[in-house]
Amino acid sequence: MPLTWTFDTGPAATAVTVDGSPDTGSVRALRAGLTTRVARRPAPLLISLSAPTTTEPWLFPLFAALTGGSGSPPVPIVVQSEGIDIRPVQVPLSRALRAARAVLLHGSSRSRTCDERLLPVAGAARRGRDVATDACARWGLPHLVGPAAMVASELTSYATRHAGTLMDLTLAATPGTMYVAVRHGRPAMLRPDVVADLELHLINAFAGCWGFLPHGQDTIAWAALAVRTPGHR
After folding, report:
1. Distance between CA 52 and CA 77 in Å, rounded?
2. Rounded CA gap, 43 and 34, in Å?
3. pLDDT of residue 147 exceeding 50
4. Is residue 98 domain-resident?
5. Lowest-pLDDT range, 52-66, 154-168, 208-222?
6. What CA–CA distance (Å, rounded) separates 209 from 212?
7. CATH code where residue 11 lies
8. 84: which of 78, 92, 174, 207 is 20 to 30 A away, CA to CA?
């Protein structure tokens, strides 16, 4: 079944529920609908995906374009997938957006951070994996080495291929959550039919939620991983 979706406009954000399997026509229609909504009301988008929508990478460039690269007003976006057994316990999308903004845009006294600037070259993804591995080892989070390295690799690869700008990789560990984020310049154009070089189902498998935050002329692509240790409940 092609994609279907519903919009629920609230006082501070627009909630979007997406179901079905992506194909070219329905992805274009969804992009047009989202672009129109954002142009009329540039409020944050809180997007919930059903499990079938996460098996292909169509939706990542679609959402990335809404951060301003396609000419629409930039909006914060947070995405959460449904029906994936190994993802962390769900939190309300609005709370996830507030938490991501607080940590990634403003910093937090309760977080430990690691930052590295990377060039948009073939070795950036490998360096991203190394940085994530070192940070998890230093912070005593060995169970997050694999997930954090995978997410860092995928986000860094995506930025390298589609933005081609300098990028800043950030890992931030807060009580209960680790954020993996890549800040990069916005692509000049993202076609609605482009398929991203990013394994979207891997991001959904490891991250409880993920999204995009506009920051000046740049975009921050981020994912939140659950911290499960005796010291982080």
Report:
1. 20
2. 11
3. yes
4. yes
5. 52-66
6. 11
7. 3.30.565.10
8. 174
Q: 70-98 burial by CB neighbour count: b if 16+ within 10 A, else e?
A: bebebbbbbbbbbebeebbeebebeebbe
Rounded CA gap, 132 and 94, in Å? 27
pLDDT tens string 116-135:
999 999 899 999 999 999 99
Say if CB 152 and CB 126 are below 8 A apart: no
The reply to whether 233 falls in a domain is no
| Structure-model confidence comparison of residues 89 and 76, the more confident one | 76
* Residue range of the domain that includes 69: 4-226
Nearest to 19 by CA among 48, 50, 45: 50
Tell me what the pLDDT averaged over the chain comes to.
83
The pLDDT-based confidence of 166 (bands split at 50, 70, 90) is very high
- Confidence (pLDDT) at 49: 86
208 and 225 Cβ atoms separated by less than 8 Å: yes
3-state secondary structure of 177: strand
Residue type present at position 82: E
Burial 30-58 (b: 16+ CB within 10 A, else e): bbeebbebbeeebbbbbbbbbebbbebbb
Tokens of 65: 């374009």
